[in-house]
Amino acid sequence: MVPYKLSVNIRFIRFVLLTLEIVHVQSAFRHDVTPSCKATDGECTFDFHINYIMSMVAYNRTSLQGFPVYSNNGTLFKRTALPEGNPSHCCGNTPLSKKEMEEILTIDGNYKFMYAINNQFPGPTIVVYENQKVKIRVYNDMANEAVTFHWHGMFQSKTPWMDGTSMISQCPILPGQMFTYKFTASPTGTHWYHSHHGAMRREGLNGAFIVLPQIKKERTDIPKVDNDVLFMTQDWVYKKSDAQAVAEQNWYMLQFSNNLNTADCLTSKFTYDSSLSTLARPYTNALINGKSKSFSNSSTENQKTVPLEMFTVKTNSSNRFRIINTGITGEYKISFDEV
After folding, report:
1. For the stretch 153-172, what's the b/e string if a residue is b when 16 or more beta carbons lie within 10 angstroms of its beta carbon?
2. Which is nearest to 19 in space by CA: 58, 66, 56?
3. 187 C-beta neighbours (distance < 10 Å), count
């Protein structure tokens, strides 16, 4: 079979680490759905360390240094500073290694201060089996913000206090604190999790939560798949924080939010069910699994160079795309071209 690249269209689309805690190991996001534990395990345990990070920054986790990333003639480099105490203020430029390319959050090619789980975005994928006990230890390593996590789609039968809604089912997890979520994974299917405190979920604090059927209880009315992958979409605002975006939305200022210093006024749009849509500039950056790029001549070289998310499929193979919209204000039309 000859592998080929699957092109995905989304219409209407057009990390310096700041923490006082230990820097935690990062593993790059993978879109393949792979069980996190064995089906026979009674409990599946995860550790979430919540901290700050910046997109388009390469980190040396040993020396605790961050290096801005930039594009030059289609190649990504990092700006490297000379050793401390050197009388020269000049900086060097070093091409990124393959490992650095995997770990850097390139997002849409813009620099943005954001949140991350284990230095990863999207957050770590949770893949467990139905009725398996799930234990997630959340460590708030941030300096200022509180946080909670909602496990979107979980029934939380007999454990409503684990639902993660701040000030409703629990008090928020304060900086320097740890909280353990423990519940039963149910029902089966494609779910996700996200921060449920303030306006943090779109700025890094979300991830996929997949519950697989128990062994020998898989569905028989649908064919088995050769590939099972995540397709997570979301809107992205790099020019401002989500706290500001939500405040502008609450005060009905979205039509002015492209640039408050000018007389520009954006036209409101409506969805198919006639409800008001906020998918207007600056809400037109969309990500697939945390990645996007621009093809506009007016964009910066960084925006045009960063990689897109790619899916490799084989001819006559069966593929499952688990599509999750983790955004706040954007709705999308998704099509698979040339299939």
Report:
1. bbebeeeeebbbebeebbeb
2. 66
3. 13
Q: Which helix (H) or strand (E) holds 126?
A: strand 126-129
> Residue 243 in contact with residue 199, Cβ under 8 Å?
yes
Residue 81 DSSP SS3: strand
Supply the pTM of this predicted model: 0.84
| Nearest of 171, 126, 329, 319 to residue 246 by alpha carbon | 329
Under a CB-based contact definition with an 8 Å cutoff, are residues 254 and 280 in contact? yes
Distance CA 123, CA 53 (A): 13
Residue 146 burial (CB count, 10 A) = 18
**Cα distance between the two ends of the chain:** 15
How do residues 270-310 score in pLDDT, each as one tens digit?
A: 665 655 554 454 456 889 999 998 888 888 889 888 999 99
Q: Using the CB atoms, write b or e for 1-29: b if 16+ within 10 Å.
A: eeeeebebebebbebebebebebbebeeb
User: Residue 226 CB: number of other CB atoms within 10 A?
Assistant: 13
Whether residue 50 contacts residue 140, with contact meaning beta carbons closer than 8 Å, is answered with yes
The token pair that represents 301 in the structure block: 């070289």
